[in-house]
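Marked as duplicate of an earlier ticket. Keeping the data here for the record.
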Amino acid sequence: MFYNFIFPALNFISGMNLLRYITFRTMCALLTSLFISFFLYPLFIKKFRYAQPIRNDGPQSHIVKKQGIPTMGGAIMVASSILSSILWGDLTNKYMILLMLLTFCYAFLGFMDDFLKVRKKNPDGVAARKKMLFQILVAFVFSYLVELLRSPDMAGHLTFPFFKNFAIVNTPFLLIFTTLVIVGSSNAVNLTDGLDGLATFPSMLTALCLGIISYLVGHIVFANYLQITYVQSAGELCIFCGALIGSCLGFLWYNAPPAQIFMGDTGSLAIGGALGGISVIIKHEFVLAIIGGLFVMEAVSVMIQVAYFKMTGKRIFLMAPIHHHFEKKGWHESTVVVRFWIISLVFALIGLATLKIR
C-alpha cells in the first residue's frame, strides 16, 4: 500500500526510492508483522479463554501440562502476515492478492474447526470430509486463477528440478497436481503442529527458502543464470514470505516451551496452504517437498500408520504423527523439537542446493 501510494513520487522524495527494492520492503514487512504480533499476543493470551482440547490417546504428559492453554493464536499470525503484506506489498500484483485470499480462506476453515472444537470440548471440529472438500475447492480455484495469469508460453507447464528444459505440458493434469500440492502442504503442516514450536521454525525456514526462490524466479537475470523458469512479478511474493516469517517469530516467542498459546488449525492450515500456494506460483512444487521435508515425513508417517493398521490391525509407530512416536519412546518434548528443527534445516539446505543442479 505504501508502495502504491508513494510510487508516483519515488523520484522526487528523498529516501523514498528505497521502496523500489523488494529486499527493503521484505524486511519492513517482517519487522511490521513481528511488532504487530508482540503487541497483540499478550492481549490475546490475557483475554482469550478458549483452551485447546487435548487428545486422550496422546502422551500423558500433554494431558497434564497442556490443559487450559488458549488456542487460535494462528488468527494473529494470519492477520499480521496479511496486514504487513498489504502495507508493504504492491497491491497491483495479482499473484500477491491471490495468495492472501488463499491464506485467508484456509485460515477461515481452521478457525471454524478450532471454534467447534473449543465450543464442543472435543478434538473433532469440522467433519473431515467437509474440511477436505473445502480445501480442494479453494486450492483448485486458486490454481486455475494462477494459470490464467501465466504467459501463453508457460501456462500448463509442470517443471521439474534437476532438468533444464524438461516439462509436462498438460493443463488438466497440472491443475489436479497443484491442487494436491496445496492441500497436502496445508495438512502436512497441520499434522506437524503437535508440540510446542515444532511446526513454527520449519515454517519459517520454508518461507525463507521460498522467498529467496521467489526473488530469483522473478528476476530475469538471475532466472536465466540459474536456468530456472522465469515468472514475471513473482518477486513480490518475497514481501508475503517476510511477513510470514515475522508472524512466526512473534508467535514462537509465546509458543516456546512452556507454551502460552497454540496456533491451532487457524494457523497451521493457513501457513501450509500459503507455502503450497507460493510453490505453485513460482513453479517449484517438487522443491517444496524437499525444503519442507519434515512436513512430508510427518504426513507420510500418518499415512503409513493408517494403511498398515487397516491391513494388519497392528501399528508400525507407537503413535503417529512420528514426533509422538519418539515421545512415547521416552524422548523429552524439547529434544524431539530441536532434533526435528535440525532435520528441517538440512532439508531446507538441500532444497536450496537444487537451484544449482540443472
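See parent ticket for discussion. The chain has a mean pLDDT of 89.
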